[in-house]
Amino acid sequence: MSKGGARPGSGRKRKDPALKALAGTTRADRENAIGTPAPEAPMIAPLHLSDLAQLHFRSIAGMLEAEGRSSPHYAEHVALLALRLEQIQRYQAVLEVEGDVYHTESAKKVDGESIITRLIRARPEAAMLSDAMRQAQSLIAELMLNPAAALRIASGHKPQAGAFDDF
């Protein structure tokens, strides 16, 4: 099984726009030139977000606006990140109050004697927090809001020409 995510050049190849025009399947709304910036407009938070998630949404939208990368097309993606950040806060609050583990006891009778088993288990919120943090990190990377992406944006990341580009 391969690991490491998508590789450059993998996936389905784009069909030539001229072939689409001949076949009659061309759609103007899908034919954006590579590098065409998304239309700039203020992002509006979806109605399903809670008050805390809307605060996160506005914060993230403000960061994207400051960098000149804000677009209403990204609103649902930013909303998903805002929801995950809200969940992270909620799970952390539960873990701070309740602790990371809980204790269970079970009793059973064996040959007329009662045996009590005590177990220490991790709270389910710990796993949910880990999952929410992992997904939030992925969403932050997709929106290019992490330090590595900021360096790429600032330096105008351009792949260097290699000796094997013709293959």
SSE order, as H and E? HHHEEHH
Task: Describe the largest sheet.
Answer: 2 strands, antiparallel
Biggest sheet: strands side by side, in what order?
A: 1-2
Uncertain segments of ≥5 residues (pLDDT<50)? none
Helical content stands at: 40-55%
Give the class from helix and strand content and strand pairing: alpha+beta
3D shape: elongated
What does this structure look like?
The protein is α+β, with helices and mostly antiparallel strands. It has a domain at 40-155. The chain is built from 5 helices and 2 strands. It has a two-stranded antiparallel sheet with strand order 1-2. Helix 2 (51-66) packs across helix 3 and helix 3 packs antiparallel against helix 4. The chain is elongated and about 85 Å long. The chain starts with 16 loop residues before the first helix and ends in a 12-residue tail after the last helix.
